[in-house]
Amino acid sequence: MNRKDFAGLYNSLRLFRHIGAGFTQLIHKVGSHPKGEKVVEDYHEMTRLIERLHRRFLDVLRTELTLLEITDINAVQALLLANIGDEEINVRELMSRGYYQGSNASYNLKKLVEMGYLIQEKSERDRRATMIRLSEKGLSLIKQLSEAEDKQANMLANSNPAPDLEVTRKALRQIERVWTDYIQYGV
């Protein structure tokens, strides 16, 4: 599993965490589903598991930062750097991807610029837009975290029993699509 897949899986988990409560109404419509109450029970357990996985993943990032002796940023900020990756991205685009809320992202971006992990500049094409990209310090950290993610992916693959990450990823993507449709179209 590469860094982008890992970040994508994590971001799906973040999205699910924010949507879960409002989606509960829709799941109650499955009362006519052959499995009925079991579907509702599984759904409720899944939404709570997603929240716990989100927190656990931040704990994993905190552990990696500690092992790397990096104390000037937190796990959320490290994840923000991973989501930017090697792209130069408009701040608005980062928000529109659904990863971050406005004030939360603004605060973390400001701190990451101050600590030298990010470079923030006005766009040459549109002076109203702010572009961000990782500095050498940020790229170095992301490289180290990517190596740690590779190690974690291998640990999962070698666990007993090993989860089928491809099936899990596909299921999470399907849930993300259903929830996105619910948000956008109320369907």
Could you explain the architecture of this structure?
The protein has 7 helices and 3 strands, in the order H-H-H-E-H-H-E-E-H-H. By secondary structure, the chain is mostly helical. The chain has a single domain (3-185), classed as Arc Repressor Mutant, subunit A, CATH 1.10.10.10. The protein has a 3-stranded antiparallel β-sheet. A hairpin with a 7-residue loop joins strand 2 and strand 3 (130-134). Helix 1 packs antiparallel against helix 2, helix 1 packs across helix 7 and helix 2 (37-67) crosses helix 3 (75-84). The chain is globular. It starts with a helix and ends with a helix.
What is the gist of this entry?
The protein is mainly alpha-helical and about 190 residues long. Helix content is about 70%, strand content about 5%. It contains seven helices and three strands; from the N terminus they run αααβααββαα.
Write the layout of secondary structure elements.
Layout: H1 3-27, H2 37-67, H3 75-84, E1 89-90, H4 91-96, H5 102-114, E2 118-122, E3 130-134, H6 136-157, H7 165-185
CATH-level-2 architecture? Orthogonal Bundle
Residues in β-strands, percent: 5-15%
Q: What is CATH's topology name?
A: Arc Repressor Mutant, subunit A
Structural class of the helix and strand makeup?
mainly alpha
Mean pLDDT: 82
| CATH class category name | Mainly Alpha
The DSSP helix count reads: 7
For the record, what is the CATH homologous superfamily label?
Winged helix-like DNA-binding domain superfamily/Winged helix DNA-binding domain
Number of strands: 3
The largest β sheet comes out as: 3 strands, antiparallel
Which H/E pattern describes the elements? HHHEHHEEHH
